[in-house]
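Here's my example:
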Amino acid sequence: MKEFLKQEILWALFILVVQIIAGFLVTHFILHTTWDLKSTISGYSFIVFWGLYLIIKICIAIFKRVKSQKDRNV
């Protein structure tokens, strides 16, 4: 379980870093506006993405746990 949590945290941090870098590149080079971390984190797309990411990860973890318990009982 510890290894799973460590892997998921590292994966989430990687996605976060890529999302921040992509946000900077888009706002700076394509939109030609100033970029700040507050506007990136408080944006609706950022909040919706991470909310859905957490919901999906929790559902997958529950599904895997239920499936492993069913396989163990058979």
